[in-house]
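Worked example 2:
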Amino acid sequence: CITYRTSPFAEDTEITGPIALYLDAAIDKEDTNWMADLVLVEVDGNRQLLSQGHLKAAHRALDKKKSKPYDPIHPRQDPVRVPPGKVVRYAMSLLPTACVFKKGCALELIIRNQDDILSRLGTWGIYMLPFMQTVTHEIHFGDSHLLVPHIPAGAEAGLRI
């Protein structure tokens, strides 16, 4: 697995809504699993799983009519092999979340294939999308990105109660 972490937030920051991960990557097999975990890292080092998503590489096709940048939709289809060694775009939805990151907290993104994230976070573990092959994953950074709905904490917009 590979982990990316933001710098600590300079002010309280809210992330609320849908999340999408866009990866440009090459693999050395015809298929793999992509899994992503979004984690809140508190100032004291405590970690909390906020969201998860997964995508079977052979089911990467997008429904262009239904998809939105923040919500890639994959139609049910027969698997389409991934050309080994070729950089391919993978668009993956993560579950929507709502969290206020206090000043000094960070956001962590973990990209993995078959690791057991929940046991590493101190809870029970599960395996998803078994593949059981060794696959080399090569992420290309040019246009790869995580799309999150950033809302400044305390923003005046929205519903007033």
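The CA atoms of residues 63 and 77 lie 11 Å apart. The beta strands are 2-5, 13-27, 33-41, 47-56, 88-101, 106-112, 137-147, 150-152.
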